[in-house]
Design goal:
Layout: H1 5-19, E1 24-29, H2 49-62, E2 67-72, E3 112-116, H3 138-144, E4 149-155, H4 157-170, E5 174-183, H5 191-201, E6 205-207, H6 209-216
Parallel strand pairs: 1-2, 1-4, 2-3, 4-5, 5-6
Helix pairs in contact: 2-6, 4-5
The structure holds pyrazine-2-carboxylic acid.
């Protein structure tokens, strides 16, 4: 059998990834209807991340690496909402259409869902404040899966993506922000730019799809 140089290095990289116990993982933040155009708290052009994230999903499935997806999962009454003293219009209320993942997002079987924002008295933006369906914290899940490096995309750059990436840096993960798969709310113009600068200062790297595929040793056809 003829194996090209490129094919061989892909195989070696995948074997390395397998032997070192899958250190990398994909993390999608809050790709939910309410954060997309037409939703209760729309992120401008938020739905544009869906197609790009589907490509990342395919990549991580092929590389047999763990995939996580967070969701805002609020009760009807919470201090997070303007009606109860918070900042935001009601959004992502548990069990509603707005809280569902965008219908175009192709979440594979085996994805771990992290829910956050359930406490009516707590403001939570970071996925590290979320829990899996079995009640384990996100940090526990990552440690159990021996994840050391995260690739993070989704919504919104200036809130939940930012808070999650900052926490991940604090917890000493290597963090890659998917610059082609994030969008900001921009409550104030410039918020997204400022968030990106903060993430860079915290040690996050910025990557695009073309750079990630070879890093994982996967070639998509
Ligand atoms: C978010 C604002 C309010 C987010 C959540 O997912 O980034 N933004 N709640």
């Amino acid at each position: 059998m003829f194996i090209s140089d490129c094919g061989l290095s892909a195989i070696v990289l995948q074997a390395y990834n397998a032997l070192t116990m899958a250190r990398q993982a994909l993390l999608l933040i809050d790709v939910q209807n309410d954060f997309c155009p037409g939703g209760a708290l729309p992120v401008p052009r938020g739905d544009e991340v869906v197609l790009v994230l589907n490509r990342y999903l395919e990549l991580f499935v092929q590389a047999h690496l763990p995939i996580f997806a967070s969701r805002d999962w609020h009760p009807t009454k919470t201090r997070h909402f303007a009606a109860y003293g918070g900042t935001w219009p009601a959004h992502c209320v548990q069990g509603t259409h707005g809280a569902a993942f965008h219908p175009g997002l192709k979440l594979p079987d085996g994805v771990t869902i992290l829910s956050k924002g359930m406490d009516p008295d707590e403001e939570s933006y970071s996925c590290f404040q979320g829990i899996a369906s079995d009640g384990r914290s996100f940090l526990d899940v990552l440690n159990r899966e021996q994840v050391q490096e995260l690739f993070v995309g989704g919504l919104a750059t200036d809130y939940c993506v930012k808070a999650t990436v900052l926490d991940a840096c604090t917890h000493q993960f290597v963090v890659n922000v998917l610059s082609d798969a994030i969008r900001g709310v921009e409550l104030k113009p410039g918020d997204t730019e400022q968030a990106l600068r903060e993430l860079e200062r915290a040690g996050a790297r910025f990557v695009t799809f073309e750079e990630v595929a070879p890093r994982l040793g996967v070639r998509l056809h």
